[in-house]
Amino acid sequence: PFDVLVVGGGPAGAAAAIYAARKGLRTGIVAERFGGQVMDTVGIENFISVKKTEGPKLVAGLEEHVKDYAVDIMQQQRASSISRNTLVEVGLESGATLQSKSVIVATGARWRKMNVPGEQEYSGKGVAYCPHCDGPLFKSKKVAVIGGGNSGIEAAIDLAGIVEHVTVLEFDSKLRADEVLQRKAESMGNIDIITQALTTEVNGDGQSVTGLTYTDRRDNSSHEIALAGIFVQIGLVPNSEFVDGDIDLTKRGEIIINERGETSMEGVFAAGDVTTTPYKQIIIAMGGGATASLSAFDYLIRQQPA
Ligand code: FAD
């Protein structure tokens, strides 16, 4: 069996594996796709000490760093279950089972998409999901935020300080964001909020986004807004389905961890976007992976010798 088995090969998983291997532990990584969300990222300008990089370039660096150590990398494998006997067992969709004395779950999350024409085509060309990451690209331009929950209104307030104007489109008849955030957004001169709006299409000129089309659900009329950017804020879905029922999750599906990265299952730790950690960012996921790995080491040195 492994000493530490990491499930997930994004920034959290890579950091966890390197920290474990550097302790001389027998370490494996099982991942569906090495690099995770970073593979889908165009420009990265907030990975501290690297002024500007691109997702695939950062992933190549992660992979090179992991491969510098004796880590057993198993790619194109999806975990489908987790259980605990004397060891932790991770079942794979392929039918195989991996055994380890400890496991670090770092399976990340995925942004919920609008699934409208143009969204995929213009992703990274005006369609964005992360205001902390891409907000500054739209300095002095007009943008929309799709979604009037907490993350949507937080994004609108954040963007309003950078861009010329923000239009928030909410499907429902009222915003779901906290009252204090709604009041703050209303107090800002450059945020408009449109409720009962169903976004139906992302418009572009072949190169980048030029606007969007939405239906006003009150009278079914169709409207167009000219914009340079569209921030989709309709939910981040944690990839935690395979542990559901075995490890405690929040009602939004995040794996509940404490400040050491411990989960509700003995010997199982978690890190990164799949967890309750606030703020989902590369640098935070890496820190979480390091924390979980050091906690796994602490756990292992306290086990009775076999
Ligand atoms: P992920 O990167 O999501 O990696 C998860 C890993 O788990 C992957 O290897 C995946 O294949 C694997 N996996 C998932 N399910 C399973 C399973 N069942 N079995 C096996 N493996 C599984 N952050 C920044 O700091 N700066 C930016 O500029 C930035 N831009 C972004 C742009 C976009 C378009 C997106 C989508 C995100 C961006 N982020 C940015 C956020 C950042 O990418 C995430 O916070 C970070 O990647 C989270 O790392 P993670 O390791 O927790 O998860």
Please give a structural write-up:
There is one protein chain. With 306 residues, the chain is an alpha/beta fold. The chain has helices at residues 11-21, 55-67, 131-134, 150-160, 179-187, 282-301; strands at 2-7, 27-31, 43-44, 53-54, 71-75, 79-84, 88-92, 97-105, 109-111, 127-128, 142-146, 165-169, 191-194, 197-204, 209-216, 221-226, 229-232, 236-238, 268-270. Strands 1, 2, 5, 6, 7, 8 and 19 form a seven-stranded mixed β-sheet that branches. Strands 10-17-11-12-13 form a five-stranded parallel β-sheet, with helices on one face. It has a three-stranded antiparallel β-sheet with strand order 14-15-16, with no helix packed on it. Helix 1 packs parallel to helix 2 and helix 4 (150-160) runs parallel beside helix 5 (179-187). Bound molecules: flavin-adenine dinucleotide. Flavin-adenine dinucleotide binds next to helix 1, strand 2, strand 9 and helix 6.
Number of helices: 6
What would you report as the Rg, rounded to the nearest angstrom?
21 Å
* Beta fraction: 25-35%
Bound molecules: flavin-adenine dinucleotide
Shape: elongated
Span between termini: 13 Å
Structure classification: alpha/beta
Q: Main β-sheet: number of strands, strand sense, barrel status?
A: 7 strands, mixed
Proportion of residues in helical segments: 10-25%
Report low-confidence residues grouped into runs of 5 or more. none
Mean pLDDT value? 96
Number of strands: 19
Helix and strand run: EHEEEHEEEEEEHEHEHEEEEEEEH
